[in-house]
Amino acid sequence: MKRVSIKDIAQAVGVSTALVSYVLNNKEKEARVGQKIAEVIRLKAKELGYQPNQIAKSLKTGRSQTIGLIVADISNPFFANIARTIEDEAKKYNYTVIFGSSDEAADKSQNLINILLERQVDGFIIAPTEGSEEQIRSLQEQHIPFVLIDRYFPEISTNFVVTNNYQASYHAVKHLARSGRRKIAMIAYKSGLVHMKEREKGYLDALADSGMESGQGLVKEISYNFIQQEVGEVMGQLMKDHPDIDAFFFGSNALSMGGLRFLNRNNYRIPDDVSVVCFDESEAFDLFYAPLTFVNQPLLEMGKEAIRILAGQISDRAAALEQVFVDSALIVRTDK
Amino acid sequence: MKRVSIKDIAQAVGVSTALVSYVLNNKEKEARVGQKIAEVIRLKAKELGYQPNQIAKSLKTGRSQTIGLIVADISNPFFANIARTIEDEAKKYNYTVIFGSSDEAADKSQNLINILLERQVDGFIIAPTEGSEEQIRSLQEQHIPFVLIDRYFPEISTNFVVTNNYQASYHAVKHLARSGRRKIAMIAYKSGLVHMKEREKGYLDALADSGMESGQGLVKEISYNFIQQEVGEVMGQLMKDHPDIDAFFFGSNALSMGGLRFLNRNNYRIPDDVSVVCFDESEAFDLFYAPLTFVNQPLLEMGKEAIRILAGQISDRAAALEQVFVDSALIVRTDK
DNA sequence: CTGAAAGCGCTTACAG
DNA sequence: CTGAAAGCGCTTACAG
Questions:
Q1: Residues 47-86 in A contacting B (C-alpha not used; CB under 8 Å)
Q2: pLDDT by residue (tens digit) across A233-246?
Q3: What is the CATH number of domain A165-296?
Q4: Closest nucleotide over all strands to B120 (CA to C1')
């Protein structure tokens, strides 16, 4: 059962495909198509249940109206939420989104980029993995529009939308210090990526500015692929070496989950034994026995900005780079 | 900067585009292309950094190697996890996935289907919304491959992969009864969709089989769009009307979250005041003060099956329908 | 106001 | 073993 094409309509009405194309794309004025014939064409199109073939359109116009979204893992709530805002925003610009999960692995990222490029996406939104600098540079050389999200490479001039990680982290730790905590540990990812480094830096500076001894030995880095296993070991060791730790700052939502689980299992009470601040929200917090303070990234705003910038780059390759730092809020929760 | 095409390679090597096409698609044997020339072509392709244009390929072959995934909401952990398994499985079959969220609204679903159809997806995986029967029938009439997931329409013969909702629900409630609960309420969605209806039926039958009075008055239905508001009101009213309720069965992950939040806020202790069983897992359970028993759907298996069936339908439109019921496990958690 | 025609980048019989 | 050619479904100058 062949789908109906522009040609079918043209034949049915008795005009050329050119007219049909103009009318169906609302270019009647530019093409000065007759009023009545336009009406007839439109009617026939509806009657036959015509659906434009976007693939054919793309081939001709060089625009697929599709964008590629590469995140670390679509099943991670942080990225799932980002994906949703991007989906909604993209729709407003008439874009459809193809997504892929890189699992923080450069080779998977490269593979995804290739596949999406073959699919002729008009642009990318990418949460770049460690070691993907060359991939990003290559995109740049090919003049393919993209905007990085969540992280970026300081040494490469690109569009990006990220939260102000340093500041968010600094405030979070300052908050702990102000509420009287004197030995604050941080659990982070083992990653050279700027977002994590900035979070660590914010933590360290906040310690220093609060007159605490350098936290160097109190920042622990976990492998992305073994969070659940490593978090327990690492925190266990930390508490053994430093029984006087009185607060934890968790560098991401997955780290928070793992860390809180450890604290629960080992019967550390929050906030009596240790205080906790988490980077990113989790719906799990709502059910936790203690109110949890966390850094709240404005996902909706990030998604909006990313699409806005990308759409701008697509329609004008010469558009100026945009580097957006959005501010995260520290949501302080306490009812004691 | 034009991307390099098959024509560029042909010219550079001095052969026809036909040869290049055959070689690059590994059809040298069928086309009996010369060994050496094949090698030269391959080399030149690599040298020029050739990337096939999948759009052009699609137009010619009528296959986009793309599948459309329609879920209720990609930011819902249940669907985000499904999406991930589908992404991974699809890749194995060389498919790429475009997704969209319907928000359980039939008009959005229709809109998504249209957009994806225009994009020439080879098939769909759909968690159908209430009232989308006609959309599904229409897909069927157009002989477009698809498989429903999570829910289906009993009155329409289609492929689907769903969990055995009735059974899962029945066991869950039986479990509560066996552990001595005598007045079990259920919080469900207001929905005519079979998955929710079956869950309610399983609940009712389990009550009856356990010698409890009909639970009719103890099933409450919440509007999808107002969970957080309604759940509190509804449960508050329930507890007022039936102070002797000693257990709740929550019909979905979002309902569980809302319900548990209500219990927390109102200081009902689990399991001392009320017992709870949830449909679907949530990472929030790990951090909850009490061990939570839940129905665990095998998402990975569901994703695998869905793609397997869809791929089968795509390559053979005449393939027999497949209706898969996977079994969910009741994960009993208790350390008291 | 309208039509004939080229062409987007491929694949694939067909002919030799 | 290889090339010329048609055609997938569109858009868009160009000519009239």
A1: 51-56, 58-59, 64, 66, 73-77, 80-81, 83-84
A2: 999 999 999 999 99
A3: 3.40.50.2300
A4: D9
